[in-house]
Amino acid sequence: MGRPRQAIQIAESADDLYELYRKAKDGMKRRRYQFAYELKRGTSTEAAAKVCGIGGTAADTWVRWLRQGGLVELIEGHSWGGQRRVGGQLSEEQEGTLVQEAAVGKIRSIYDGVAWAKRRCKVTYTYWGMRGVFARLGLSKKVPRPVNIKRNEARQTAWREGAVLPAQAGRHPARRGHHDER
């Protein structure tokens, strides 16, 4: 036979817990408020876990947290992983330098950014870590292909607008094929 169940003391009333549940925007907090509400109503731990969509191990952990520190401990005390924002390894000044060098064209890809951070700032980044830095700073993953140095912007614009352009001086006339008569 197992141990007798100990009652869980929750200071808040069932109505208060229900209001907190309804107002919670974060899904995990909302689920935890619902769990506490169900326990306050007298529902068993197993039934409350089923209603909230959590497993037995998580329910046991949440009950332990409720007993240790009440509702505050359950809601605010633990996050169980999740995305936490850790400050970047590059300082703001280094990030500014990265943006400047990318604008000039010295850093052309994410791998160039990884190498630059290792060489210049003595900081090791993975591809995905640097990709996050690029996204945060608004840098693109790749730079456009180089532009032809011989291009003539005026001629290109005229051609796009449908103008018929005379042959450019210095170019060979169209060569005839071997089938054409001379």
Q: Could you report the average pLDDT, rounded to the nearest whole number?
A: 82
Distance between the termini: 109 Å
Q: How many β-strand stretches?
A: 0
Oligomer: single chain
Helix content: 40-55%
Estimated structural class = mainly alpha
Strand content: under 5%
Number of helices: 8
Shape: elongated
What series of H and E elements makes up the topology? HHHHHHHH
The radius of gyration is: 33 Å
Q: Residue ranges: pLDDT <50 for 5 or more in a row?
A: none
Main β-sheet, in a few words?
A: none
Description:
The chain has 182 residues and is mostly helical. Among the domains are: 14-76, no CATH class; 92-137, no CATH class. It is built from 8 helices and no strands. The radius of gyration is 33 Å and the shape is elongated.
